[in-house]
Amino acid sequence: MTSVKEFRVAEGATSARLGRGAFVFTDDYSVFDWGKMPDEIPQKGRSLCAMGAANFEALEAEGISTHYRGVVPDDGDEPIPLAEAEEPPREMAIELTQVPDLPHEGRAYDYDAFHADAGSNYLVPLEIVFRNTVPVGSSLRSRGEPSEYGLDMESWPDESVDLPEAVIEFSTKYEESDRYLTREEADEIAGEADIDALETVARDVNDLVTGKAARAGLVHEDGKIECCYFNGEILVADVVGTFDENRFSYDGQQLSKEVIRQYHKREQQAWVEAVSEAKVRAQKQDVADWRELCEHDPESLPETVLETASEMYRSGANAYLGRDLFDAPPLSEAVEAVRDLR
């Protein structure tokens, strides 16, 4: 079980072969690395499943290998293509790889032990991030000057900036508090998986999602992928190109999990500040799990906010898929409801 989806294993992976299993998408959500939040967003899980399936199928059609095997209908056992699904699916069949334990003492993580157990069949312990824009508040602004990213300006402006070329970054996957890595650090953590090949795959995924988004009237701002490594081949894993993994906008309005993040920043400031303080304290005290130092818990959201978020996910998925798979208002109406949350 992750914070937003259940994980089923039908046949476990070994050092010599991939396994078989499934993701079952829930309506749970997570922000600020907290894990499962108090509420559910109706139909969120099915929208993520449908968007992820559509992207995996498009990647496979372009010759990019993935761990995807199809979606599983509620009343079925065998995976089918998304086009054959009459109702929004919530289960995605996938191939499985190995995920060894990552030993640590405080915040010191032993990646040598991870790879000793992993062999040549493992989930690469990295998140590969691609950025097409640099919005106000982006951490990229604090980690580099505009000229480092091909921008002809001396300082970051008080508005979002489009990048001339997507920026690819690497961050940790299994550490309690994720951190951005230098290319050399990422190369070491990736093990046998080639860092250049991982970047190439990330750029290919970004191009595909950006194109699909544009055809739906959406702007694809940034996102991430995870990858399996199996006997020299890289497979795109987890879920790709959804409103949780990526940030999209429509007519200048964010359409992603960022909407809920920003709502918490406005309405639950005490909790958001406590999260930031706990992360800082954990780093200073060399504590892996910062949550045990957090002095506040998040509160439930109003029903109106949950319904607005649900419409965002459902309407956005319909637009992205080019198909009325969900019972949802037009995307323009859902966007106006999101704007009213401000």
Please describe the topology of this protein.
Blueprint: E1 5-11, E2 19-25, H1 44-61, E3 68-72, E4 91-96, E5 104-105, E6 108-109, H2 111-118, E7 121-123, E8 126-134, H3 140-143, E9 161-172, E10 180-181, H4 183-190, H5 195-215, E11 219-230, E12 233-237, E13 247-250, E14 253-255, H6 258-267, H7 269-285, H8 303-321, H9 331-339
Antiparallel strand pairs: 1-2, 2-4, 3-4, 5-6, 7-11, 8-9, 8-11, 9-10, 11-12, 11-13, 13-14
Helix pairs in contact: 1-8, 8-9
Keywords: ATP-binding, Ligase, Nucleotide-binding, Purine biosynthesis
Pfam families: SAICAR_synt
Pathway: Purine metabolism; IMP biosynthesis via de novo pathway; 5-amino-1-(5-phospho-D-ribosyl)imidazole-4-carboxamide from 5-amino-1-(5-phospho-D-ribosyl)imidazole-4-carboxylate: step 1/2
What would you note in describing this structure?
Its EC number is 6.3.2.6. Keywords: ATP-binding, Ligase, Nucleotide-binding, Purine biosynthesis. This protein is α+β, with helices and mostly antiparallel strands and 342 residues long. 33% of the residues lie in helices and 23% in strands. The strands form 3 sheets. Strands 7, 8, 9, 10, 11, 12, 13 and 14 form an 8-stranded antiparallel sheet that branches. It has a 4-stranded antiparallel sheet with strand order 1-2-4-3, with helices on one face. Strand 13 (247-250) and strand 14 form a beta hairpin. The longest helix is centred in the middle third of the chain and has 21 residues, at 195-215. It is globular, with a radius of gyration of 20 Å. The two termini are 32 Å apart.
